[in-house]
Amino acid sequence: MPPVNTGRLHTANRLETLRNCLGAQGIPPEVVELLLAATRSNSFAAYQSAWSAWRDSCHRGDNDPLSVGVVETLKFLSDSSKEGNSYSSINVFRSMLSSTLSLAPSGLSEVGKHPFVVKLLKEMYNARTPLPKYTHTWDPAEVLNFFETTATKEMSTLSLARLTTLLRCGELASIRADSIRFSQLEVSFILGKPRKTTTQHSGPSKRISVASWQRNEIICLVACIKAYIAKTADLCTAGNSEFLFIGSTRPHNPASSSSLGRWIKELREAGVDTAIFFCPFDKIGRRI
């Protein structure tokens, strides 16, 4: 295959740039889409911002964003730190560069693992060690006491699911309704997409189980999910029955991650300072 002019491949859109790079290497379009689908959408969003910063930096130095050396990479990361970017942001830049340049016909392979890059990031971490987001946390007992004395089982379902499973909004939104299994001692279910923090890359999705709390059904997730399913049974249609949580307004579509993220009213009512802990339940809590 003749050398490829990478100057014709890169655009302001990183996803389009990756398509161009893979296509230039003779990879069929349908295979390109499968390769790109292996990366999750939230990673694409974070990498797009990093790609824009990298592309602007290369243009200022009259460099090709897809065919630079380690020196340019080190300078970009160093300049990003001097501009006040956090260590976590710079680490995203490194990950973006590693995944992007490795796909370019003449790009660096795994630049993020280059010894100089690894050492630079290590020194940045030591110089500006990230601080924890919070120095204290909220008391889950306050929320449970609120549910116990005020809420109904249908109202508590979403918040209890977050408390007992530590799943994110998008993960809760993907709970498959047809996977839910009840027993006297627990409820179990399967997510419709891989967990963000999981290391599983093959095989069937793992089943998530939560034990019942028979001392008080109001704060028992098993009882709450049963009540929620019964409450929403008449609202289920062929278009929204795939997942557990559905919207509270017509046409009652499957609840999205952003929808669950807006449902935080109960937390304020329960005494959680949402001005400080804006996402203590990953933005979950509204009665549903």
Automatic annotation (TrEMBL):
<keyword id="KW-0233">DNA recombination</keyword>
<keyword id="KW-0238">DNA-binding</keyword>
<dbReference type="InterPro" id="IPR013762">
    <property type="entry name" value="Integrase-like_cat_sf"/>
</dbReference>
<protein>
    <recommendedName>
        <fullName>Tyr recombinase domain-containing protein</fullName>
    </recommendedName>
</protein>
<dbReference type="GO" id="GO:0003677">
    <property type="term" value="F:DNA binding"/>
</dbReference>
<dbReference type="GO" id="GO:0015074">
    <property type="term" value="P:DNA integration"/>
</dbReference>
<dbReference type="InterPro" id="IPR010998">
    <property type="entry name" value="Integrase_recombinase_N"/>
</dbReference>
<dbReference type="InterPro" id="IPR011010">
    <property type="entry name" value="DNA_brk_join_enz"/>
</dbReference>
<dbReference type="GO" id="GO:0006310">
    <property type="term" value="P:DNA recombination"/>
</dbReference>
